[in-house]
């Protein structure tokens, strides 16, 4: 027979056991409720994932079949994604372009400048405008405008560039034809004394695009201006060793050495030889910084889409023949 003390201990143990069983039952109910809640959350997550997958597929299809040419490249120029329109411009299947360097389709002369732009792309947060000559596979080259935006990939581990590619060959031809037509029309209305004031001026025009050189030379010659055209900074410096022009007009964006390199050489020559040659920066880039151009040493700045009379007026003003 148990003593009173032993009976008290048994009773206390039974009470503790009842409390533990109650706690376990409460815990089981809480776990059951948590499992039910997790099942609901899991179902919601699965539903959300399905929705995201459908949306991703929708946007992927919009990208793939968009009427505009889009592609995504690394900062080394490797193609990561490309849609059918862009692939058609490069004259290859999209699957064959993934992993290939985009620079393979850039003209040989412009590749050094294209590499420089790739290296500098991460330092620019806004949308950039790049104008390059694209050489599709087994097809004719065309003038292209690239709208470039730096982004991060989905995992935020790699920097990428989103590109929108436009063939602007016909646009540039149309603009140049209209400029030439406008110039031919306007020159017929220019007083004879104005033509005489410009008569005999010698202009050195620097641009890597042959059709631009031909157009500007044709415009200037109508005003009895003597024009020497060259395709590079190196050729321009060689020409400056032979003669001193009354004015220099130079493109800014050129492969190898650009217009900024030329103006530095011109300023050095002016100090060395006591010259003072007015200079005009002539650019096709809408985003070209006018303050940067003038700060580099150019006397004036003009966009290539400006009317021919604007160029003539600028030449007359800079040479004192206005």
From TrEMBL:
Keywords: Phosphoprotein. Residues 55-125 form the PAS domain. Residues 202-319 form the Response regulatory domain. The keyword Hydrolase does not apply. InterPro entries: Bact_response_regulator (IPR050595), CheY-like_superfamily (IPR011006), PAS (IPR000014), PAS-like_dom_sf (IPR035965), Sig_transdc_resp-reg_receiver (IPR001789). It comes from the Bacteria. One of its GO terms (biological process) is phosphorelay signal transduction system. The modification 4-aspartylphosphate is found at residue 251. SUPFAM superfamilies: CheY-like, PYP-like sensor domain (PAS domain). This is Response regulator. It comes from Dendronalium phyllosphericum CENA369.
